[in-house]
Amino acid sequence: MSGRQMVRPGGRSARVQAAVHAAVRDLESEAGRSALTIPLVAQRAGVTPSTIYRRWGDLQELLSDVAVERLRPEAAPADLGDLASDLTAWAEQFLDEMASPPGRAYVRDALLGDPDGGNAGQCSGYAAEQIGIMLRRAADRGERAPGTETVIDRLVAPLMYRVLFRPDGLDDAYARRLVTDALGPAGR
User: Would you say the pTM of this structure is higher than 0.85?
Assistant: First the structure.
């Protein structure tokens, strides 16, 4: 057995993370983002600033970690009975959440505090997991469906590009057009 301690799920590490994340969310809503500092977050979370510096490095990395957690879906996508309906509802909700000012800020934070791209991969994984659920349900119903990567390329990628770089004119109709294109002839 190595000399390093293993982190226990639900142990002190998880409690520290939860307290620090809650402190960031609370302070941001109370005092605004510009007022956030590591000492202030540490005081609110009941930990020392060195605990935060050791775990997150700096404020941007902490905000990045909080943003990734906020971008995690809270539930499986709705099952509306067919893939086109499921994907459409999911895409409209995804667009609404990502195109909102808080959604854009979370995406920006997730990427800024993550020079190696791990957070981007984690966020992409969240979308792929949600899409995979919908595609498995479609397969169980006997529907023809594209692969996960096709849906990522034809639906998620253009939505995210537009959210980040060309947000004007984004609406549910755009999301529906992308779903139709992603499904191709099999889903029409």
Answer: no
